[in-house]
């Protein structure tokens, strides 16, 4: 935590990967801080029939990162149907997520996130910085580099962390009504 606010080179990484990993570590540390003390009931809380729970969002973070491992490390345009099926319901969420992603402790989610991240970090260590700048067609058939794709992984987490904060406020409000 001492260097969490420093975006710079990191041991074991090229200069650009060091910056990327610094940003990813900050995003993850602040997510963990937000959720680390939640109960199973709080992780499963749904504020309406269309909502995502906090547990679902944590599962989504892991599924998105695994998807980007496949797409970027294997230099592929997309996931296979089998890969999508193995990553769901965490990838797409929705009603299947509500039905299947529940009853888990915070340790379950945090351990899964750590396992997925460990794979990412090991792969990053083996790649040259130039890999981050390799471009392929991406959304809307526009060119994107691997740097952007991995930026999106933690940008998605930050975006949904805002949702987690709102859900936590809704939980407090619901608990006050009891």
Q: Tags for this entry?
A:
7 helices, 3% strand, mainly alpha, 2 strands, globular, single chain, 178 residues, 63% helix, two-stranded antiparallel ribbon
Describe how the helices and strands are arranged:
Blueprint: H1 15-35, H2 40-44, H3 54-73, H4 81-87, H5 94-100, H6 106-125, E1 135-137, E2 143-145, H7 146-177
Antiparallel strand pairs: 1-2
Helix pairs in contact: 1-6, 1-7, 3-6, 3-7
Describe it for me?
The longest helix is centred in the C-terminal third of the chain and has 32 residues, at 146-177. The protein contains seven helices and two strands. It is mainly α and 178 residues long. It has a two-stranded antiparallel sheet with strand order 1-2. 24% of the residues are buried. A hairpin with a 5-residue loop joins β1 and β2. The model has no long low-confidence stretch (mean pLDDT 95).
Task: Offer a concise description of the structure.
This protein is mainly alpha-helical and 178 residues long. Helix content is 63%, strand content 3%. It has helices at 15-35, 40-44, 54-73, 81-87, 94-100, 106-125, 146-177; strands at residues 135-137, 143-145.
Number of strands: 2
Task: Report the end-to-end length measured between terminal Cα atoms.
Answer: 38 Å
- Determine the number of helices (DSSP H or I, runs of at least 4 residues): 7
Instruction: Bin the helical content.
Output: 55-70%
Helix-strand pattern: HHHHHHEEH
Strand percentage, roughly?
under 5%
Shape: globular
Q: Structural class, from secondary structure content?
A: mainly alpha
> Could you tell me the mean pLDDT?
95
Low-confidence stretches: none
The largest sheet is: 2 strands, antiparallel
Radius of gyration: 17 Å
Q: Strands of the largest sheet, in order across it?
A: 1-2
């Amino acid at each position: 935590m001492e260097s969490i606010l420093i975006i710079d080179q990191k041991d074991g990484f090229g200069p650009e990967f060091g910056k990327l990993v610094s940003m990813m570590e900050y995003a993850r540390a602040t997510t963990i801080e937000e959720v680390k003390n939640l109960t199973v009931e709080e992780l499963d809380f749904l504020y309406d029939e269309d909502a995502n729970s906090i547990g679902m969002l944590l599962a989504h973070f892991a599924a998105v990162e695994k998807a980007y491992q496949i797409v970027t490390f294997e230099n592929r345009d997309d996931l296979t149907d089998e890969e999508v099926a193995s990553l769901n319901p965490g990838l797409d969420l929705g009603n299947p997520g509500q039905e299947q992603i529940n009853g888990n402790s915070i340790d379950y989610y945090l351990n899964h996130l750590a396992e997925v991240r460990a794979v990412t970090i090991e792969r990053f260590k083996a790649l040259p910085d130039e890999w981050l700048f390799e471009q392929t067609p991406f959304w809307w058939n526009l060119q994107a580099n691997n740097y952007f794709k991995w930026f999106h992984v933690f940008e998605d987490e930050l975006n949904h962390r805002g949702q987690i904060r709102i859900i936590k406020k809704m939980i407090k409000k619901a608990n006050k009504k009891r």
